[in-house]
């Protein structure tokens, strides 16, 4: 994919692949964004043809928090693009990606996010506005048993 930063492709409701372009300077963000779509889609499978972010009970608090985020789209964007950009599945993918980047503990990933924030990239939110949503993303993953657990190791 070259016109988009990334793409999560399905065929007959089954995942086919994730594609990420190097052309937009967002490889890490785009990969995590598309991975967020995969998680959303796979968890939604138990609900029928839905994506989990729009209706799964585990996402309810996240949906409430995400509604408080300001739009990042510039003026003049068409109605269809605006509707998709603000859809639950797109907000989930974007918030999943930003949460992983910001809370990974990995200096390179955190630096990638810092660079995007510095240029005011439309695909990420300012840190203070986003923090409550990141908390809810982590809560969703925890409720679903998908959160990474850190194990204390005795020295």
One letter per element, helices H and strands E, the order comes to EEHHHHHHH
Number of helices: 7
What would the principal axes of the Cα set say about the shape? globular
Q: Could you describe the largest sheet, including whether it forms a barrel?
A: 2 strands, antiparallel
- Briefly note the structural class of the backbone: mainly alpha
Any low-confidence stretches, pLDDT <50, length ≥5? none
In percent terms, what proportion of residues is strand? 5-15%
End-to-end separation in angstroms reads 47 Å
The averaged pLDDT comes out at 86
Strand order of the largest sheet: 1-2
Gyration radius from CA atoms, angstroms: 16 Å
Say how many strands there are: 2
Helix proportion range: 40-55%
Q: Could you describe the 3D structure shown?
A:
With 155 residues, the protein is mainly alpha-helical. The chain has seven helices and two strands, in the order E-E-H-H-H-H-H-H-H. It has helices at 27-44, 52-55, 60-67, 79-85, 88-103, 107-118, 127-143, and strands at residues 6-11, 14-20. The protein has a two-stranded antiparallel ribbon with strand order 1-2. Helix 5 packs across helix 7. The termini are far apart.
